[in-house]
Write a sequence for this structure.
């Protein structure tokens, strides 16, 4: 991958272009390899060490944490920015609902801070929509946050506009910084910085040509675009801009919208003989225990440096604040695999068989009915139904099955992980949304979070080549959540993943949860490897499980429940895990095929679960998939 | 009270019975473990001990009728009752001589018909096969039984057996000392005072011993504290106890089969409070057979500094439904300890260091990332 050049990623938007003018040509290109992408992708590359430096939104930089900035270069505004605006038919202060593109985190956080300031704390409801849909959404009490070219296109269309650059400047007297060059400490030399500075000078000189090119492509007025680049966008990052950015970071952290972040320049690392004064581990732990948002860098540091007890106590404190009743829930449900036929051949799986294999099967209605009746008889409330990706089962098969199950047995249907939804979509040539809508109409109640493994594509390619990418997995969940379907979230670690990958995984879940709020709970477990799997175990073990679960509780500040995976860790360790941040004990186990075919076979009935919950110092109650209590805790 | 206890622990002051009771009852087991871990790390740093041992049970014929036991059969000739020929017992060691253990651990039923010479010959035979093998044999309950059966004093029995090769005594048979419990679960074997007296005599002869507590059945936390404090008092007197081993009661197939199975939280709590109360006992053992290897790993962070040994062929707990394997290899034990973030130290029975293994590369690849960042920092600074 690396050819020794600095790997630089930048957003391809108009206002960014003056900052990297000429970086893709000699002489700069012998030192720098430049790629353009959308903002979230640019940030991801730095987070996953696929880029050394990126022109990224400042909220993304705070989420990654412990990055350095290049002094002198930024995309900001000292007053009106024009391309980040709240619009409405009524005064912005009176809007009840605002449509936003939730993936534009920096602008969304800025909008929320300004709305809070203007409305004395009360906030309108935010709904996630794409930019075009957002504009169409405007009307009655509904406004929209519009960003980029669409914002320039609608100038003058709405009677009420709040330019976020202007509003920030009026509120704070400071400039705002939307994006800057950010990278890991030590990634950049002084010479590299000079290249960036020269690119900016060249870019500013070519601003009018850039505006003209963009006008030709988009049909926007050249004069308007020139003025936009000349006057609205402010490319400086000096002391004033730094104060503006620090103020934004402080306000956002106080509001719980971003991890606490500091601004530090590469040249400061070079000037001083000591590294930036680190936050003490104690301070970090107490922030974590208070439930404050942690950056990826902070999560990584806690995972590496905090003791088992520190992590456990901090996670337990968070658990206690979220669930002060001292109740641990569990569910009586049954994990049913409708087929063991699967086309993905994941190397960690000992369960699947190819189509036509003598040991391949699909459950008959009779077999399934017997299992479901047993669940009903045992007072169960739900079926967790998953495959195999069977290459010949059509969507009608699932629809018929779901309708039959729902009409015959009154059980919740928690079915088909994202991988299966995608598989059915490919097979039928249907979008994720249509697949989910049809399945929901047939009886689907919620979506299990399986198959997430580690949401870092380098890891996924190694352990499950044929499986969906991280973005595809998250994309299915996004669609499901937007439709009102809830899901769980999972993580399977302990193959080729590193601690950094595991933290990245947690941050990706947290980011999506910020957007949708659709995850009910998080479960993690380590790779189970006793027989039939084709890869060696990586980092696992009991203590790592407890640390990992505790760290997840600390990082996932927007997911309500964390479950202890006793099925993989055993009832004993599962019980101990209840003191390491979990508030749920998972499911009574009738059967489980996938993990048990790799060698883990634990069983526990409801009495034994309750005994263990109580012995750990909690009250026990049964729940449904929405974590509602079904029995009085006792 | 936790604050008072915390400051006493920091000053290494002795805890009272009330404080022990408070710790047993404290709802937050992690907070209790944290205190125990402080003591554990003060005494042993990051070291965690294990040895290479093997278990032999030469007879399960037993005159006692302990309610908690799924192993002993009352009479010779009953179905499943078995007494080994001496050659059978010795063969257990002979077949392991290419990678021999350093300790043979023998505990038995109380057999009414075997002569003392059987046990003397048993010991001598093992020493013939491997002269430096350490024979850790016969609980205090067995020694007391021998004294009654052969009409000898404890001292005479111990001296005879030592002459035949006995090196130290295991800690079994302590159960729960308090008579309210002991009279109900094991009324027909050595009393608490008799158990402690055997240990006292052994110590006076220079024979080291371990001690145990079987918890998690009908006893209360008061009984556990009472038990621990009796051991602490004896240790003040003799200093002869090497290690204390809390043993969880397993309910399958015995007279208390309707009681719940042990839980990990109780195991960790008991390890932790034992560490805190037994300030004069050097080692607290997380006996992996009793608590599963996984919970033993956690226990190494809750006050324990030892996980016992490779065992090979444990049968007593398995008879009572323990899911633990019947033995672990040295490599498995080393990994178990390394995964707990401790330094594996192979010891002999008397806690002399045989071999100190390396600490694991910490299980966190985060460290590698950090090193890489640090390296970049250094490049920048140089």
């Amino acid at each position: 991958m690396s050819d020794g050049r600095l790997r630089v990623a930048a957003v391809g938007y108009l206002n960014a272009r003056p900052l990297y003018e000429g970086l893709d040509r000699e002489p700069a290109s012998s030192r720098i390899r430049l790629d353009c992408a959308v903002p979230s992708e640019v940030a991801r590359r730095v987070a996953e060490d696929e880029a050394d430096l990126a022109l990224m939104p400042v909220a993304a930089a705070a989420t990654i944490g412990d990055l350095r900035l290049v002094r002198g270069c930024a995309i900001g505004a000292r007053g009106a920015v024009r391309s980040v605006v709240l619009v409405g038919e009524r005064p912005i202060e009176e809007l009840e609902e605002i449509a936003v593109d939730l993936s534009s985190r920096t602008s969304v956080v800025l909008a929320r801070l300004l709305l809070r300031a203007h409305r004395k704390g009360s906030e309108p409801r935010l709904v996630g929509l794409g930019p075009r849909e957002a504009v169409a959404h405007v009307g009655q009490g509904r406004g929209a946050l519009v960003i980029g070219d669409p914002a320039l296109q609608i100038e003058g269309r709405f009677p009420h506009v709040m330019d976020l650059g202007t509003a920030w400047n009026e509120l704070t007297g400071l400039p705002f910084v939307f994006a800057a060059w950010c990278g890991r400490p030590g990634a950049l030399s002084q010479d590299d910085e000079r290249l960036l500075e020269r690119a900016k000078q060249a870019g500013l000189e070519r601003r009018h040509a850039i505006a003209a090119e963009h006008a030709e492509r988009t049909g926007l007025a050249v004069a308007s675009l020139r003025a936009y680049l000349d006057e609205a966008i402010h490319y400086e990052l000096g002391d004033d801009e730094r104060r503006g950015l620090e103020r934004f970071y402080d306000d956002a952290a106080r509001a719980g919208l971003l991890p606490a972040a500091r601004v530090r320049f590469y040249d400061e690392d070079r000037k001083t003989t000591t590294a930036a004064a680190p936050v003490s581990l104690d301070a970090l732990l107490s922030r974590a225990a208070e439930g404050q948002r942690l950056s990826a860098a902070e999560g990584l540091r806690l995972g590496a440096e905090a003791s088992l007890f520190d992590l456990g106590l901090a996670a337990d404190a968070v658990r206690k604040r979220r669930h002060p009743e001292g109740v641990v829930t569990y569910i009586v449900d049954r994990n049913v695999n409708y087929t063991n036929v699967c086309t993905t051949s994941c190397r960690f799986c000992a369960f699947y068989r190819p189509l036509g294999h003598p040991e391949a099967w699909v459950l008959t209605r009779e077999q399934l009915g017997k299992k479901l009746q047993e669940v009903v008889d045992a007072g169960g409330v739900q079926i967790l139904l998953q495959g195999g990706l069977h290459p010949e089962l059509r969507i009608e098969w699932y629809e018929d099955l779901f309708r039959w199950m729902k009409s015959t047995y009154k059980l919740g249907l928690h079915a088909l992980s994202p991988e299966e939804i995608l598989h059915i979509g490919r097979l039928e040539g249907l979008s994720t949304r249509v697949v989910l809508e049809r399945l929901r109409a047939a009886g689907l109640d919620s979506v299990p979070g399986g198959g997430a493994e580690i949401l870092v594509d380098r890891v996924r390619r190694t352990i499950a080549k044929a499986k969906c990418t991280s973005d595809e997995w998250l994309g299915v969940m996004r669609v499901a959540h937007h439709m009102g379907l809830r899901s769980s979230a999972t993580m399977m670690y302990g193959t080729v993943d590193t601690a950094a990958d595991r933290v990245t995984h947690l941050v990706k879940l947290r980011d999506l949860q910020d957007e949708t709020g659709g995850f009910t709970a998080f479960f993690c477990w380590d790779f189970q490897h006793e027989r039939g799997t084709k890869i060696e175990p990586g980092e696992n073990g009991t203590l790592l499980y407890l640390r990992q679960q505790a760290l997840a509780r600390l990082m996932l500040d927007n997911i309500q429940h964390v479950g202890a995976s006793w099925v993989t860790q055993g009832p004993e360790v599962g019980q101990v895990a209840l003191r390491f941040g979990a508030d749920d004990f998972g499911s009574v186990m009738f059967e489980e095929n996938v993990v048990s075919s790799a060698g883990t076979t634990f069983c526990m009935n409801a009495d034994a679960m309750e005994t263990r919950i109580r012995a750990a110092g909690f009250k026990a109650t049964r729940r449904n998939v929405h974590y509602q209590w079904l029995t009085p805790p006792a | 009270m936790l604050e008072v206890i915390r400051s006493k622990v920091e000053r290494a002051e002795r805890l009272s019975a009330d404080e022990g009771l408070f710790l047993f009852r404290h709802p937050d087991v992690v907070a209790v473990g944290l205190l125990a871990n402080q003591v554990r790390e003060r005494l042993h740093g990051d070291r965690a001990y294990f040895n290479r041992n093997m278990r032999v049970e030469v007879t399960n014929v037993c005159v006692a009728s302990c309610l908690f036991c799924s192993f002993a059969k009352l009479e010779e000739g009953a179905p499943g009752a078995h007494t080994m020929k001496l050659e059978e017992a010795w063969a257990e060691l002979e077949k392991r001589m290419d990678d021999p253990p350093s300790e043979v651990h023998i505990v038995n039923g109380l057999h009414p018909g075997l002569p003392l010479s059987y046990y003397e010959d048993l010991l001598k035979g093992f020493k013939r096969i491997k002269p430096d093998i350490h024979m850790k044999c016969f609980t205090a309950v067995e020694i007391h039984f021998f004294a009654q059966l052969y009409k000898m004093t404890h001292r005479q029995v111990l001296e005879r057996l030592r002459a035949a090769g006995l090196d130290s005594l295991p800690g079994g048979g302590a159960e729960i000392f308090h008579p309210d419990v002991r009279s109900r679960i094991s009324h027909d074997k050595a009393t608490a005072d008799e158990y402690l007296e055997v240990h006292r005599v052994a110590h006076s002869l220079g024979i080291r011993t371990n001690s145990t507590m079987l918890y998690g059945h009908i006893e209360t936390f008061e009984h556990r504290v009472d038990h621990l404090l009796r051991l602490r008092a004896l240790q003040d007197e003799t200093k002869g106890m090497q290690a204390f081993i809390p043993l969880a009661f397993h309910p399958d197939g015995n007279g208390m089969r309707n009681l719940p199975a042990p839980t990990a939280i109780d195991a960790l709590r008991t390890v932790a409070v034992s560490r805190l109360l037994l300030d004069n006992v050097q080692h607290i053992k997380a006996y992996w057979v009793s608590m599963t290897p996984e919970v033993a790993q956690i226990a190494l962070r809750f006050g324990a500094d030892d996980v016992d040994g490779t065992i090979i062929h444990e049968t007593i707990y398995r008879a009572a439904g323990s899911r633990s394997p019947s033995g672990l290899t040295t490599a498995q034990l080393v990994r178990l300890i390394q995964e707990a973030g401790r330094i594996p130290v192979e010891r002999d029975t008397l806690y002399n260091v045989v071999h100190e293994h390396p600490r694991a590369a910490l299980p966190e690849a985060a460290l590698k990332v950090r090193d890489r960042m640090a390296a970049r920092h250094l490049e920048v600074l140089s």
